[in-house]
């Protein structure tokens, strides 16, 4: 059997939304996947599942939030001398906000995992795409970054920073039509990250969000709300005057 031609490196590959995105990809095409994450055992289980779905998988265990890894040098060592079609960044964590606000180290860690780490990795991936002249960088942000709200602004501010970083990268590569920078913005999604929350009508399943994420990646959609109706919801929330917002518990 010939090797798959589509090649992707995936950070935070154990994420539930990410796994569903990769499953949606594999329903349409075979792929060679470099799965990167902090937990070797979980990565191996994800790799086994994706192999059953037709992928060729390698795993790489790395502490994504320590910033010591030189990704721009390391990724080419795992490329089998083929270009990368996709870099997908999925890692993130939703903290207990009160705990993060009460402890500077915990606050810094949340900002590091949700903003600094993906920004550092995105910059390295951007340098590789620049050299190759083509490919897609897709990063999972969040609707939470669209407006600072009392209930979720620690996580939200990190995702807002990431949103701006990616918008800037998109501008930087705007004249390179074969390079796509895709910001994925899921709304509330049923995954291990939200296991502690009561599920209401605004929740979507991880498989639906993953399938929509893959559609957006394939299309090279610059900013994709997942599902799309979150764009309307967040437009309304962004437009709320502060005096109205402050009367809510959003
Ligand atoms: N679920 C939602 O409602 C929702 C909504 C909007 C955006 N998002 C975003 O979607 C992405 C995926 O989340 P998910 O819902 O799929 O949740 P998930 O299944 O809990 O996945 C979280 C991922 O982040 C990794 N991670 C967490 N802390 C880390 C750290 N300190 N260092 C390295 N990796 C770390 C986890 O690795 P381990 O498996 O090793 O723990 C896992 O791969 C995240 O960026 C999240 O912010 C989620």
Concise account of the structure shown:
With 250 residues, this protein is α/β, with parallel strands linked by helices. It has 9 helices and 9 strands. Helix 1 packs across helix 7 (206-219) and helix 5 (104-132) packs parallel to helix 6 (153-172).
Describe the protein's architecture and organization:
The protein is of the alpha/beta class. It has one domain: NAD(P)-binding Rossmann-like Domain (Rossmann fold), CATH 3.40.50. It has nine helices and nine strands. The strands form two sheets. A seven-stranded parallel beta sheet has the order 3-2-1-4-5-6-9, sandwiched between helices. Strand 1, helix 1 and strand 2 form a beta-alpha-beta unit. The longest helix is centred in the middle third of the chain and has 29 residues. The N and C termini lie far apart (53 Å). The mean pLDDT is 97. The structure holds NADP nicotinamide-adenine-dinucleotide phosphate. NADP nicotinamide-adenine-dinucleotide phosphate binds next to helix 1. The site of NADP nicotinamide-adenine-dinucleotide phosphate has 26 residues, from helix 1.
List strands and helices in order, with pairings.
Blueprint: E1 7-11, H1 16-28, E2 32-37, H2 40-52, E3 56-61, H3 71-77, E4 86-89, H4 97-102, H5 104-132, E5 135-140, H6 153-172, E6 179-186, E7 189-190, E8 204-205, H7 206-219, E9 223-226, H8 230-239, H9 242-245
Parallel strand pairs: 1-2, 1-4, 2-3, 4-5, 5-6, 6-9, 7-8
Helix pairs in contact: 1-7, 5-6
Question: Which key phrases capture this entry?
Answer:
Rossmann fold; two-stranded parallel ribbon; 17% strand; 46% helix; binds NADP nicotinamide-adenine-dinucleotide phosphate; single chain
């Amino acid at each position: 059997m010939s090797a798959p031609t589509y090649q992707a490196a995936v950070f935070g590959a154990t994420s539930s939304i990410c796994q569903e995105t990769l499953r949606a990809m594999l329903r349409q095409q075979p792929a060679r996947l470099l799965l990167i994450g902090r937990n070797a055992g979980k990565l191996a289980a994800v790799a086994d599942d994706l192999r059953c779905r037709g992928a060729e998988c390698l795993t790489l265990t790395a502490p994504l939030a320590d910033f010591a890894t030189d990704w721009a040098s390391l990724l080419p060592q795992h490329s089998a001398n083929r270009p990368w079609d996709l870099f997908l960044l999925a890692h993130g964590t939703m903290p207990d906000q009160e705990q993060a606000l009460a402890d500077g180290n915990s606050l810094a860690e949340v900002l590091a995992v949700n903003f600094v780490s993906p920004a550092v990795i995105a910059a390295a991936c951007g340098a590789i795409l620049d050299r190759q002249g083509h490919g897609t960088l897709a990063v999972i942000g969040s609707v939470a970054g669209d407006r600072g709200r009392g209930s979720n602004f620690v996580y939200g501010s990190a995702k807002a920073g990431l949103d701006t970083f990616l918008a800037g990268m998109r501008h930087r590569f705007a004249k390179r039509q074969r390079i796509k920078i895709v910001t994925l913005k899921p709304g509330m999604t049923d995954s291990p990250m939200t296991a502690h929350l009561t599920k209401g009508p605004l929740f979507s399943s991880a498989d639906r969000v993953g399938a929509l994420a893959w559609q957006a990646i394939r299309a090279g959609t610059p900013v994709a709300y997942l599902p799309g109706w979150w764009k309307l919801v967040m437009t309304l929330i962004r437009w709320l005057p502060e005096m109205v917002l402050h009367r809510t518990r959003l």
